[in-house]
Amino acid sequence: MEIIELIKKQINITLSNIGVSDIELNFTIETPPKDDLGDFSSNVAFLLTKRLRKSPQEIAQILRDELDKSSFFEKVDNVNGFLNFFVSPQIYQRICSKILSNPKTYGRFDIGKGTNIQFEFASINPTGPITVAHGRQAVMGDVLANMYEQAGYVVQREMYLNDAGRQIKLLSFSLWVRYNEILGSKYEIPEDGYRGEYLVDTAKKVLNKYGEKFKDKWDEEAEDIFRKEVLEDMLKNMLETLGKINVNFDVIFSEQLLFKNKMVEKTLNDLKAKGYVYEKDDALWFKVSDLIDENDKVLIRSKDSMPTYFCDDIAYHYYKYLRGFDTVIDIMGSDHHGHIPRMMASVKALGLPEDFLKIILHQFVNVKKGKEIIKMSTRSGEFFTLDDLIQNVGKDAVRYFFAMVDPDTTLNFDIDLAIKKSNENPVYYVQYAHARICSIFKEAQKRGIDYELFLGLEYLKEAEEKLLMRELSLFPNVLTKAVIQNKPNLLTQYLERVASRFHHFYNNLSVLNAENYELIQGRLNLCHATKIIIARGLSILGVNAPESM
After folding, report:
1. How does strand 116-120 pair with strand 154-161?
2. Is residue 416 part of a domain?
3. What are phi and psi of 537, to 5 degrees?
4. Distance of CA 213 to the CA centre of its chain
5. Cβ(271)–Cβ(350) under 8 Å?
6. 278 occurs within a structural domain
7. pLDDT tens digits, 433-448
């Protein structure tokens, strides 16, 4: 049981003591805006006014008088009906001891209870290098998957490879044009083809492998070969790029598999059997309007009898269900917002559990260097890639910056800030706190001070020590909230608060020159507990915790 739950338990015991034990109260426990207002505060008195027929101030005073008797608190204040709690240092010292005892597992919880959950993210058309926008999605998906593993879920990471359909035909032909260009034959890349210079390297590989066999020859064999070669090369490059920021997948799911295993056919047949499919204008339609307030959508096109992207996506998610996942979470760019209600309608039409599919959207990314926003385009091939970003700022900054902004907010990735070695750079600021703690222990060794685990915790009573311990105690609560809200930025914000509390502690209180041996050991233990929490948080973010900087 962690700090906020412990405070709630104290309040519930007190409510029972004053005769309020038969109702559920959703009162809040929050940290006050100023440190001198207490460690935590609660609105519980405001929720009891009707029941007790008293003002919040009167009720808060009754509760204050009772709670103030508990050894759990140093004192409790009633401030205009809000209860402000000053937690006893002994409580924090016990939590510190727990952190020190469980360095690899502290903060884990089990709301997942072994639920099989799949995260699908970075499902990018394999038509070119990965952009920074897709990089944000890749990091967000990977960090969320890490957090869910901490929450007791069995997690699988999957990338869906859009390797069938018209865009791959265009990509294959665009590669063939580049191949012929090397051989001196001039052909035009279609208007909606792919013009990026990245295809030249793949064209050279095809030339080395097949020679001039396909010069001026575009037929079924050529299309198959160029399709195979470009997909292999694009996927290899994509996975290499994502590997540079430690984003890896358990499964790469090929769109082609939906046709090979007749999953599209099965999905259509099941939707037909349930009465959700009809024919019109030589096309096959899904009765979206029977389920939500939206027009019906085409599943099979009339002009080529090919399934639409929507049809494939329904089949893909139906297959996820048949593969045994309890829940699937898709992470998409905000431009897919219109796709969500249609997919939810398809889940309902197929009779899948209502909570089977969850779709998380993220906003776009702008890359800023100096005062300039770097322009990005798509098919022209002139865009700032994820590789470019990694090369400019490194893996840690890429992962941290992509995680640190609320997914609902556009991210302005400031390259100059990301490479700055100062406290202005948030990832540097957090990593430096970890490195500084490591340097304290190295200095202790030089001075012949042997670190003794757990010793001296009872001496930690100064305001700076207590505030740092309070911050450390909140790690499980922050992690829980980040999982429930699907917001990795809550974890980065927390780590920055821990770093701030630690730097304040370090700058105001001496660790190795404290007045007695026990206090030195107590502060070393507090440093160690802080190091554990920072390292745990950075590990979940996929960011290094350096020992020196």
Report:
1. parallel
2. no
3. -65, -45
4. 47
5. yes
6. yes
7. 999 999 999 999 999 9
